[in-house]
Design a protein that fits this description.
Layout: E1 10-11, H1 13-20, H2 24-33, E2 39-40, E3 47-50, H3 51-61
Antiparallel strand pairs: 1-3, 2-3
Amino acid sequence: MGEKQPTLQLLTIADVARVLACSEANVYAIIESGALPYLTIGKSKGYRVDQQDLAEFIQSRKKGKQGVEDKAPRPRPRLRHLKV
């Protein structure tokens, strides 16, 4: 018959914060920066994030080992002892 449409999975800000292991304030900052698409549900229900958009956001933030060999090692900071 027809192709089955993928189901849309919407996550709350708390859900997104749990997935990203960060605070809800960080999620709001990511959303406000435009890095993570969202939609609003009414006036009191707040923001929702599509699970697929979150997966794409996570994928875009992943860093590989490419170019790691090209970078010079960072110098270690000198530790200063506290004088009491």
